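Moderator note: this is an archived Q&A kept for reference. The question asked for a predicted structure of one protein chain; the sequence and the answer are reproduced below.
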Amino acid sequence: MSRIKTYDRIVEESLKLFNEHGERNITTNHISAHLGISPGNLYYHFRNKEEIVYQIFRQYRGFISARLAVAEGQALSVDDLVNYLDTAFDAMWRFRFMFYDLPGMLARNAQLQQDYHQFVHTELKGILAGHFREFIRMGLLKMDEADIEPVTLNIWLVVKFWFAFEQTAHPGEPITEADSRRGVRQVLSLLKPYVQPDFLPTFTSLSARYVD
């Protein structure tokens, strides 16, 4: 097996184990046993578990950035608003272990902490603000410039902590992709007061996709 293939398998299978059992409950020995490789083979690619977690974070960041990116000269549409929310919750589902104990994980991984904060407070913040300004320009939303940052922050907080909320609201029940749909509906409720009358029927129709 080539080094690159083994490296990718370690990242891929670690993500599955972390999502299923929680990152803190999985050790490098668990990962190597799951993959059927020796611990020494795993350490050839990664010095410790924190390096694996960091590579998974890079996948998460790349997924979000690629899906939210808008090609130069491309105009946004109403559908894009819901598509972006789908992307956010899809990412949260794919990489859900990251948000079960995010503060603890960041505290144990200095590189992850630095890059995570840079991504959230600079890259992601800029992307979302740009999208909102375009939605305002096209007449979908009516919002003052000063409202953009707090509204996008509220959206990010709902997205970031949605699965944790679902866990506490329904103890003992497994988290499923259906929980993501309720999360999207919750975010749409934050946006509804800003939707302009001409777009309200379309917005309502889009919101109906997420009714259980």
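Archived answer notes: Residues 49-209 form a domain with the Tetracycline Repressor; domain 2 fold (CATH 1.10.357.10).
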